[in-house]
Write a structure and sequence with these properties.
heterodimer, A: 275 residues, alpha/beta, eight-stranded mixed sheet, two-stranded antiparallel ribbon, 39% helix, globular, B: 283 residues, 8 strands, 37% helix
């Protein structure tokens, strides 16, 4: 044992191996070579869970018709979807049981998968393809084949979701998942399809005096102190330091033609820009 | 549990969160709780350094493996490992090629899997098995069978890795991933096994003789901005907000007996804690 201890002590004095261990000035490298845009001609969309899916056929069907038409016109997009009231139900149960945030994230992830499968069944005839994270490397093939890749909106954090500063609801839900996917792909843009014309000074469903805001910066919105934001807080924070997708648009999926118009580059709804 | 009528066109399930905006900070305060339930409260997370231990080869790895096996008699453990110099090399080449942030996060796990497979092989005669993320719910089974699960550290954020708040590299590395795993288990302890005697009070690269800080809060350590920290800065932010695991220990894996001492709750290396830990010890 003494011998071993001595030998180990001599080892402990040996400096750590050198070589390409530390990265030489990563900031300079990043500035010199900004990130590649993987799919710059492809939109990433999110169909709201509570705002669209939970309304059923009346809201979903007209949106799908516009998406099929957009696809027919050669517009590339990846379709993400949110959770909605069932996610709220299971979060509520989990909170009641004092489950940790990471377990809530795991539970919440199942609902957008259900919704994505619903959309897949409805779009299968028109090229709808269910895509999980391991299929992302096939996205170019799906898009080139004229397909509609459908992704559940939740990021894969699940048991690795961090606790928020306050509360226990997972901070990264489907807005973050869809936004960060768009940022990773260097997408043409990220569009959120909801049931209001866009952003208001307050929740228009609860406050009839809320005023429409066509355009705002992420910093202004965070600083406004508005409690019921239109999008998850982390998205506004990440936009500020993102390299690729520096604005996001919110459109009213209940309005005739709004989705197709936005996919053709229309400027309806509200836009949030990085500062 | 009832379904409410289509009064606003949406089919709601009647719960405390019905129609609520989940982004609301008021809702956050209403649902806050400092205490959460624990999943596997008696497990100990042993986080083995990639660069500090694995890259040193047999001289550092074999005695540590022996000590882990010795500790098995008294403790239930899960062993995690980082990617070390190959992970950094991957990132360097990735940056040079202009890969996006989420892309860098997606590729570093490969280096960690190699280190995991090495440790699993070495621990196999004594119950070392590979633990992958889909087995989180089976941890009890593996521990009850006397196994030593070995896992990679990188959290499965993949292409969803958030843009970094400091610098240009993904901030969520193996230290964060292993901590978060321990946090959901509500683990008994988390020990980062490195090649230094803990967090040293000064610039490690200066070559000067430095004192080990015995105990410090995560927030204070963040504010001090010491260069060459033996753990990721994001780990400190994550620990600060944690609810179950309120402290981690950094020890020197090159000194025999430190791991055993750390598992026995002795004061070795550096204890990094959050505010809840201070309250616990005062109570």
């Amino acid at each position: 044992m003494t011998e071993r201890v001595q030998w180990l002590k001599s080892q402990a004095e040996t400096p750590a191996p050198t070589g390409p261990g530390a990265i030489d000035d990563p900031l300079a490298l990043r500035r010199k070579f900004p990130p590649v845009r993987m799919l710059p001609n492809t939109w990433v969309l999110k169909i709201g869970g509570q705002s669209i899916m939970d309304r059923g056929r009346d809201a979903v069907q007209p949106i799908l018709e516009q998406l099929i038409e957009a696809r027919r016109r050669g517009i590339n997009f990846i379709l993400g979807v949110g959770g909605g009231t069932r996610a709220r139900h299971v979060y509520s149960l989990g909170l009641d049981l004092d489950l940790p945030t990471a377990v809530l994230a795991r539970l919440g992830a199942a609902v957008p998968v259900q919704n994505a499968r619903m959309l897949h069944m409805l779009l299968a005839e028109h090229g709808g393809i269910m895509c999980y994270v391991d299929h992302f490397e096939l996205l170019p093939m799906f898009l080139n084949a004229g397909s509609i890749p459908i992704v559940p909106g939740m990021p894969t954090f699940e048991y690795w979701e961090k606790s928020p500063e306050t509360g226990r609801i997972p901070p990264h839900r489907t807005d973050a998942g869809v936004y960060l996917l768009g940022e990773f792909l260097g997408a043409r843009g990220v569009l959120f399809i909801k049931d209001e014309d866009g952003l208001y000074t307050d929740d228009p469903k609860k406050n009839p005096d809320a005023e429409f805001v066509p355009e705002i910066t992420a910093g202004e919105l965070l600083a406004s102190g508005q409690d019921e934001l239109i999008v998850e807080r982390v998205v506004l924070e990440y936009m500020q330091r993102a390299a690729q997708v520096r604005e996001i648009r919110f459109i009213n999926g209940l309005k005739d033609g709004a989705v197709l118009d936005a996919l053709e580059g229309g400027t309806g709804g509200s836009v949030i820009r990085a500062d | 549990m009832s379904q409410s009528p289509h009064d606003d066109g949406r089919l709601h399930l009647d719960t405390g969160l019905m129609r609520e905006s989940l982004v609301s900070e008021k809702l956050g305060r209403r649902t806050h709780s400092d205490q959460v339930r624990r999943m596997v409260p008696d497990v100990n997370m042993i986080a083995v350094g990639g660069r500090s231990i694995m890259d040193r080869g047999a001289a550092a790895i074999l005695p540590l493996v022996d000590e882990i096996v010795e500790c098995k008699a008294d403790h239930r453990m899960i062993v995690g490992v980082g990617g070390g110099t190959r992970a950094r090399h991957t990132q360097q080449i990735g940056l040079d090629l202009g890969l996006p942030n989420g892309g860098l996060a997606r590729i570093v796990g490969g280096s960690e899997e190699q280190n995991r497979d090495i440790l699993q092989f070495l621990l196999a005669p004594n119950g070392g098995i590979v633990f992958i993320k889909d087995e989180i719910q089976n941890l009890q089974l593996q521990l009850n069978d006397g196994m030593i699960p070995v896992t990679i550290g990188q959290p499965p954020y993949h292409c969803w890795e958030p843009p970094p708040s400091e610098g240009v590299l993904p901030e969520n590395g193996p230290d964060v991933g292993l901590f978060l795993m321990a946090e959901v288990f509500g683990a008994r302890s988390v020990t980062y096994v490195r090649d230094v005697d803990g967090v040293l009070d000064g610039d490690v690269s200066s070559g000067a003789e430095l004192e080990t800080i015995p105990r410090i809060s995560a927030r204070e350590l963040l504010e001090r901005g010491l260069p060459g920290l033996p753990v990721e800065r994001e780990l400190l932010r994550t620990l600060d907000r944690a609810r179950s695991v309120n402290a981690v220990r950094v020890i020197n894996g090159l000194v025999p007996g430190q791991l055993r001492a750390a598992l026995a709750g002795e004061d070795v290396g550096t204890l990094i804690h959050n505010d809840r830990y201070t309250q616990e010890s005062a109570a």
